[in-house]
Amino acid sequence: MNKKALAILMRARMRPNNSINPALSPLAKEMNQVNQNSPDSQSTGHAIRCDSEEPSEMRTNDAGNCEREFELVRTSMHSAISMSKTEDLDSILHNFSEGYSNLSIENRRKLLLVLAREYDLNRVHVRELIKQYLGLELPGVDKAQGSFSEEGLFSSFYRIERNLRHTLRPLYEVLFDRLNTHPGGLRFLSILRSDILSFLTEENISSLRALDSYLKEKLSTWLSPAALELHQITWDDPASLLEKIVAYEAVHPISNLLDLKRRLGVGRRCFGYLHPAIPGEPLIFIEVALLKNIAQTIQEVLWDSPPIPENEATCALFYSISSTQPGLSGINLGKFLIKRVITLVIREMPHISTFATLSPIPGFMQWLLSKLASQTKLAESDMSQSLAEGSSSTFWENILKPEEEKALMSISKDITSGKNGMEVMFNLLTSTYHKWTKSPELLSVLEPLLMRLCARYLLQEKKRGKALDSVANFHLQNGAMIERINWMADRSDKGLSQSGGIMVNYVYSLEHIDEFAYSYLSTGDIHASSDLRCTVEP
Amino acid sequence: MNKKALAILMRARMRPNNSINPALSPLAKEMNQVNQNSPDSQSTGHAIRCDSEEPSEMRTNDAGNCEREFELVRTSMHSAISMSKTEDLDSILHNFSEGYSNLSIENRRKLLLVLAREYDLNRVHVRELIKQYLGLELPGVDKAQGSFSEEGLFSSFYRIERNLRHTLRPLYEVLFDRLNTHPGGLRFLSILRSDILSFLTEENISSLRALDSYLKEKLSTWLSPAALELHQITWDDPASLLEKIVAYEAVHPISNLLDLKRRLGVGRRCFGYLHPAIPGEPLIFIEVALLKNIAQTIQEVLWDSPPIPENEATCALFYSISSTQPGLSGINLGKFLIKRVITLVIREMPHISTFATLSPIPGFMQWLLSKLASQTKLAESDMSQSLAEGSSSTFWENILKPEEEKALMSISKDITSGKNGMEVMFNLLTSTYHKWTKSPELLSVLEPLLMRLCARYLLQEKKRGKALDSVANFHLQNGAMIERINWMADRSDKGLSQSGGIMVNYVYSLEHIDEFAYSYLSTGDIHASSDLRCTVEP
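Predict the joint structure of the above. Result:
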């Protein structure tokens, strides 16, 4: 290949324009991959797909097939659970996972409900053991020495407790355990769970939720950090692994091979957590840029050639953390990954002393707009009610300061209308093509306002004691502090829609990680720089 | 280094003559290793060792130290269990494992009892939950469709069952879980368990047994084959790993570097299972020789230069399987290892079609001698009783055939005495320096006799439905069959003492592994070649 052709290839788009967002449709994505991994599945009896997207004249004909297909997979699932350990389990588990992957979404749902309900625990057996247990008399335990002279009396407790523990395990645990030791099984379990989660968002079925919570616990055990390997991803890694990085990069999409190569080249690092049972596919990966200072805008990070030599860097900036397995949702691998990456970077580059992120604030605009809309409504209904009632709604709050209100009302006349500052602001922020970002005058009014409200959103808005913003919650529970928010840090359409273009720096200091994580998780305390705290505290 | 010096080094003994048998004294061994791994432990406050082997005049002085030391470790154990997840656990776990490793054996025992008893489960809480549970009414479950319209009713079951599952977990699980995610923790847990096992052999304490059974279950989960990596061990591996092979080779000790190099060189293979949390130390390893035919004697395997080119080999002979962690006793990693090794060898060397072992029969002589001794005694007591009673003991059995009895009585006159064949045989076999092996006449009588009894021992002698011989049980549960027994296959002192020099070939055929393992585990069926079956069946 000549130089020119190579250059074209390196710059060619790597993801189709209309690629499905993996976070939204894990199922379709996973199904794709499973099918790619088993090219010969098309020639097996399980190959007929029953998705309802097929032309309707085919569906009648396929309904029988779907039913038959479902029964086949159901039978193989039953064998996988009930067969003795040493029979030919491998081929049964293989058939089951192949068969499942080829089922229509509706059949997958049906099958998972069968699993959750018919392979639950044996409640009759549980009750029998409980009765035996209640029949035991507790030996008097005296904390003083010699208290365990009655050691023998405890042995029946140990025995029944052990049996009870075993009996309280649902039958479907067998399937999970067997899949876990089957090649490719752990990956398949992660697909199963991502399906369960997606069905649960449609309908909250308690048996399915119990199945999910059980599977999640098992997966957490198997994916303990002790079993994970930290791997530095480089341009020398197999294409099949690099392909995954491209596919799953969730924060700043990788546009072409050249872009990918730059992210793995001088001035940057990329680390992933690999599990031996899911080879060649990091479960989670983190992208790092080596910088002079903590970056304020995404442009400072996504450079084409390194701005400084590596040995002059003092800051390692985590600019992207992506997990590849929707089925591992709720299992926090990020915390361990970040700690291990920091330790590794310090060892290799002692000149680096600051570890920070440049993170999106995905929930800011959504929160702000709904706040503005609801307050505007409340204000209206309050005014329509007689003021003589003497009590305005306690939920009503003008989130604008008087001078902000005034500035908004005076500047916006030509562009949009509104009865009060909040309505004006709502209309400005929801205008098409983010018009407000094109007017220097509007920007000068909105900048301090949005920055103040964003700081409030990050530092004070909570849900069940946790930060409302999902990314903030992720970093805070990992032990970070909020250092700084940056105006117009991400001017992309997504950035403007999500957070008005604001991005935030979280800082990890190795000596405080555990302390901060502890106080956040136990009391909900959010650590922030004093500058930022001043913005929101009177 | 010149050639001669190198040659001397390569031939130097690698293990001291009086090296401790790892199988007998895991504790001492592990303690050694832990201390080697932390050279600075001698300078810490925990360095005083309280073993009773110290001169007695020092002991009085040290008693206080021991007590103080114990309390320190007990406190760090308490912190490791009770501290919140995100506090500085790493250093606490480090202190605990360091401290534990420096405790005297008696203090270790005390500490483990504290753990087993004071960090057990909360029985009061269990009873409360049980009462709530019994208060729930089971919705009528009807197998027909629509039976789960009462889905909502189950949610309280799911909730309490989940709580009950959690409450039935002993508090010490926290310590195990935390150690598992702590660097070096899994290795430390394996040391803990090997200590527990060694204390249990001294005294059967039910709380300690419950602790052991719980830890064993946890370890099995963490060491699932999915988390293990198959690694071919070669001369290019780090010396620190190869050193482990030398230290743990349990079947045929490795005498010097040259011996080790040969075992990893042409005509041989060595594979190990590595766990990411115990780097550089295979949990179990297997040594393979590539041969023309299934070897009959150990000499055919322990050659200095390959007898045939590798591409002429048709048999892969597993001549040694050693596990390195006494703390993983009862967790069968061998089965998965053997299956994976077979698959790998077939892929790399399709000319190899036979997979067999040349294995010791460690329990044969012990069984035979105790059989001979007890039968001799029974015979005596029977004769001393009045024969008029009409019933000789039903346990009495002459394990010799009439012609064997005759041959033994006639040939042995000059060498040893005995009232009957069995007594003669007992005396012959227990003679010092295995004198019987030096007389061609005795050998000609004993060979068919010992071979027949050995086949009987392997094929028919059982304990709780399993083969009495531990190595036989290992291979049979892994799905092997007994192919052949070989006379004078191991003339070493150990070989003669254990099994009269007889060794056995087990054969693994990939297509039967699962079937044979299944029938052995479920019905106790032992598969054997027809030749061998003929020896024992009338």
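Chain A has a mean pLDDT of 83.
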